[in-house]
Specification:
The protein has about 280 residues and is mainly alpha-helical. The chain has a domain at about 40-225. Helix content is about 80%, strand content about 0%. The chain is built from 11 helices and no strands. The chain has helices spanning about 1-30, 45-65, 70-80, 95-115, 120-135, 145-150, 155-165, 170-195, 195-200, 205, 210-275. Helix 2 (about 45-65) packs antiparallel against helix 8, helix 4 (about 95-115) runs antiparallel to helix 5 and helix 7 (about 155-165) runs antiparallel to helix 8 (about 170-195). The chain starts with a helix and ends in a 5-residue tail after the last helix. Keywords: Coiled coil, Membrane, Transmembrane, Transmembrane helix.
Length: about 280
């Protein structure tokens, strides 16, 4: 029993030592956190901008299963993807919320591209324009110019579309048909881009992924610490259970052991009183 206890004690001590080292690593990582202005006052604005994205799924739901217009069809196709990202605009707070939204922005756009719900031309225009906006790096509180940049997307997208779809390549009828479809899809794409305004104004470390990488690294170390703590707690519980079992054994059988010992001792004493044969 002493051997088992000492083995468990050594394991617990080793785990405590590892926890100390892990906490030191986490403290070092905390010091490497990218520095930028806080976004504590933007939570409500980000949530409001997120309503632009939610507008797409709300439009699709309003259409129901009865209305089959091209607008409704476009809303349903696009919202099947964008709806997955709506909760990002109300998660966490401050810089963590900005990180949640902006780290999901490109994956969302790329997912729309893979599904081909926007069409190749509009998808390429959206990805190109959003990436260029990120590279511009608007000042955090430059709401006017970041909003103006988003408003100008429609004109940019139409120019890109007309450079591909025109009467030199398509018939007038096809140009009209494709233009109408493009217009309807562009309406919802404008809503999507409007929801990502904060990403144009986000700090460089968020825009270039530095903050995301730091956050993931820190989370990994915190998870490792939690695992070490859990292992130590499990050993402590197992050790406590064994000690309880020993205590129960002593409580239940110790009286009988005492009686047996006393009986043996009494028997020897009685035996010593028997007269020896001469």
């Amino acid at each position: 029993m002493i051997f088992i206890q000492s083995t468990n004690d050594r394991k617990i001590i080793e785990l405590y030592d590892l926890q100390i080292k892990q906490r030191a690593e986490i403290a070092a990582i905390e010091k490497q956190k990218p520095k930028f202005s806080k976004f504590d006052n933007e939570d409500s604005l980000i949530a409001t901008q997120g309503s632009h994205l939610a507008h797409i799924s709300n439009y699709a739901e309003a259409c129901g299963d009865i209305i089959k217009t091209t607008e409704c069809i476009a809303a349903k196709e696009i919202s099947s993807i964008t709806k997955q990202y709506e909760n990002k605009f109300v998660q966490f707070s401050g810089a963590e919320r900005v990180q949640a939204v902006c780290s999901s922005a490109k994956p969302m756009i790329e997912q729309l591209g893979k599904s081909d719900v926007l069409g190749v031309t509009l998808y390429n225009s959206l990805l190109q324009y959003f990436t260029a906006g990120i590279d511009k790096g608007f000042y955090q509180y430059d709401y006017v110019n970041s909003s103006k940049y988003i408003e100008d997307f429609s004109a940019f997208a139409w120019n890109e579309f007309k450079s591909v779809v025109n009467v030199n390549v398509f018939s007038k009828r096809d140009v009209t048909l494709l233009s109408n479809e493009f217009k309807e899809t562009l309406y919802f794409t404008d809503s999507l881009l409007s929801s990502l305004n904060v990403c144009l104004r986000a700090p460089k470390s968020i825009r270039n992924g530095e903050y995301s990488n730091w956050s993931k690294h820190r989370l990994e170390k915190v998870s490792e610490l939690s695992e070490l703590q859990e292992r130590a707690e499990n050993i402590e519980k197992a050790k406590s259970l064994k000690n309880d079992n020993v205590t129960k054994l002593q409580f239940l059988y110790w009286p009988f052991i005492i009686i047996l010992a006393l009986s043996i001792k009494f028997g020897k004493a009685v035996n010593s009183l028997v007269p020896k044969k001469i």
